[in-house]
Design a protein that fits this description.
Oligomer: heterodimer
Largest sheet of chain B: none
Number of strands of chain B: 0
Radius of gyration of chain A: 20 Å
Largest interface: A-B, 27 and 22 residues
Structural class of chain B: mainly alpha
Strand content of chain B: under 5%
Helix content of chain A: 55-70%
Number of helices of chain A: 5
Radius of gyration of chain B: 12 Å
Chain lengths: 160, 41
């Protein structure tokens, strides 16, 4: 369950660089996908029912329910480590702020532009905000790796 | 959702995933309820 690696804090960039490893797709378990799907679908149904029963705004609140995130964090913590789950949660903070921008775009533009245009524009804004926050928070050159202030190669205090 | 994700990080450090997730969801409900008051009024 535990992995011997140092965990970066919120303001430090992740130790692993951004990249794609298609081979990892084979590690995905169908059961995990079904759990995430069930949580997401359940929340969508609950939001729809709430909208019909009350007003659209109450349903909208449920659309921001962290269903898939909650399911994923639990699955990741079980199968990987709590540190991996925390890294996902840190990323989700940026994604959630971007979701707020998406929702604000919809609130302003639905009724003024075609629905498809609003969704595409909102999605583009989500990508821009989420990606921008990632670059701003975690991809800065000044981002220092976590540690105890010692040069890892020599075990000596880092001169700053 | 921002509150959930931000709270999940320290909770996952102290509790197991299920308890951390459940507690963060409780806080999400509280924040959503407080936020909903001016929106629905």
């Amino acid at each position: 369950m535990t992995r011997s690696r140092e965990e970066p804090g919120f303001w430090h960039g992740p130790e692993e660089s951004v990249g794609a490893d298609p081979g990892k797709l084979r590690e995905i378990r169908l059961q995990d996908m079904l759990v995430r799907f069930a949580f997401g679908a359940g929340t969508s149904v609950a939001a729809g029912v709430t909208t019909l029963a009350f007003v659209a705004r109450t349903g909208g609140i449920l659309l921001a329910f962290p269903a898939i995130l909650a399911a994923s964090l639990t699955l990741i913590a079980d199968e990987e480590t709590n540190a991996d789950a925390r890294e996902n949660a840190r990323g989700a903070v940026a994604g959630s702020i971007a979701l707020t921008a998406f929702a604000a775009t919809g609130a302003i533009l639905f009724g003024r532009l075609a629905g498809t245009v609003v969704v595409v524009l909102g999605a583009a804004i989500w990508v821009a905000v989420a990606g921008g926050l990632y670059l701003l928070l975690w991809a800065r050159p000044a981002s220092k790796p976590p540690g105890d202030g010692r040069d890892r190669r020599r075990g000596e205090p880092v001169q700053r | 959702m921002i509150a959930y994700a931000a709270l999940a990080v320290p909770l996952l450090r102290r509790l197991d995933a299920l308890r951390a997730s459940a507690l963060a969801l409780g806080v999400w409900f509280a924040v959503a309820a407080v936020t909903a008051i001016p929106l629905l009024a």
